[in-house]
Structure formats: structure tokens, C-alpha cells
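Work Package 3 (structural annotation) set out to generate three-dimensional models for the target panel prioritized at the project kickoff. During this period the team completed the workflow that converts sequence records into C-alpha cells, so that structures can be stored uniformly alongside our sequence database. As a representative example, we reproduce one entry of 224 residues exactly as it appears in the project archive.
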Amino acid sequence: MCKDAARWHVRHRAFRDHRVVSLEELNTNPKLAAVPVFCREHNDQFRFFDEDCGHVVCRDCVTLKHNGHKCLSLAEAASKYRQEMEALVTKASTQAEEIKGAEAKVEGVSLELKQAYEKEAALIKGTFGEFVAAVTAHEHLLMTELDNIYKNKSFTLTEQQDRLRVFLAGLESAVQRANAAIQSPGNTELLVARADVVSTLGALERQPPDLEPQSNRAATGPAQ
């Protein structure tokens, strides 16, 4: 996080049990990632994961606020949900590769469109360059039509490419967070990150982008 986000994070009540350290601190002391996290309300180490609430809790939390809930030890919960997150990461990684392939196809079609445009433009200009004023007016009409075709198709392809890049960025970010949580030596970090990762990947999966280029017709020039 940036400094502003970090300051907001530690002040927000929803994240009062989170611990924020700088990257410099983490690089200097990698063991910080495995330091036990304590409940700020009861000053006791988190030892359980409440499956009903989806939160890590201490012994006092279980007794006072989560009595009767299904609670697992951190190790049990981490083992259970690590497999779930690994499956999500595998699926998301596969989708990321498909997105990359789709983006490459869109870029290729954009290049073909540009080359077709340049070819048509050169043909039009060469053919009508020596004609009289009336023919020159017709050339202008054809060029305007060709420009509109090119602009419309380029705009469609550019928009699609932007959507693919945004989707891919969100997907890769979620995968990175999930991998970081999976590889974390502590169980708490995995369980805390799980809800965000599952929610993000679920939202992306419900709104997949169109992987086929939206402007992929061979003919690009105006009618002669």
C-alpha cells in the first residue's frame, strides 16, 4: 500500500486487528511475516478461524462473541482453504493466459486493420491523384468513408484491448495476492486474504471479457 492507504488502513475499525509494516522492515526482517498476530480487543494471539463469520479469533472471542460457531484451529482452516485458494489460482492463471492470448489477437487484428487501411489509402490516392476536380471530390468522399471505417474499427478494438488489460491486471493482482497468502509461513495471513481473493476472483469470473476481436472482418475499404 502507499502511505496514505496505510494510514487509512490502521485507523479503520474494520482492520483494527491488522498489522501494517513497511517493505523495508519486511525485507530487513522476513520473519515479520510469521510473527503471531494478536487480537487487539483481548490482547491474545489468534488461534481459531470462525467458519460461520469468516474471521480469525482468539480464545476470548470464541467464548464471548462466537460461542456456538463452527471454529477450526488456524492450521486446520489454513489446510482446508489453502486447497480452495490453490484451485482458484490455477483457474485464474489459466484464464489469465487466455486473456493474454486474446489481447495478442486483438493487437494482431489492429495491425492488420492498419496495414489494410494504409494499402487502401495508397490505392485511392494513387488512382485518383491525376483526375479532375470532380474525381478529386469523389476521392475525398472515399477517403472520408475509409477513415470512418478505420476509426470506428480501431476505436472498437482499442476499447476491447483496454478492457482486456484492465481485466488482466485485476486477475493477475488477485493471483499475486493469493500466491503471497498461500506461500506465507503464517496461517493468519492466508485466512485474512482469502475473503478478498475469493470475492475478487468471483466478481471477475461473473463478468468475463469477450476474448474474440470485435472487429475482425477482412474487408476494410469503402465500396468502389
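The chain has six helices and five strands.
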